[in-house]
Amino acid sequence: MAKVTISLDSDLAIEVMVRIGARSPQDAVELIIRDYLARGHRTEAITGDSADPDRFTDRRSAPEEGR
Question: Could you list the residue range(s) of the whole structural domain that residue 14 is in?
Fold first, then answer.
């Protein structure tokens, strides 16, 4: 896997490290990104992907007649 180098403000990196309990800025950013992506996958699993053709169909059933 390729590595990417990103520059961040030191105060931002330290705040993230403290909030999630990481020992290095690299670990903190990696954990946040992994959590963000996992949350997106869970949301798609529940609501469906935007390319899902059934997403926009009307799922309401027609009223029953004859009662």
Answer: 10-47
What pTM, to 2 d.p., does this model score?
0.55
Residue whose C-alpha is closest to residue 25's, from 35, 33, 16, 36: 16
Residue 17, domain member (yes or no): yes
Task: Decide if 64 is inside a domain.
Answer: no
Alpha helices in 1-67, H assignment, sequence order: 10-20, 25-47
pLDDT tens, position by position, 18-44: 998 999 998 998 898 898 988 887 777
For residue 28, the one-letter residue type is A
Cα(40)–Cα(11) distance, rounded to whole angstroms? 27
Say how many domains are in the chain. Answer: 1
Q: What are phi and psi of 54, to 5 degrees?
A: -80, -5
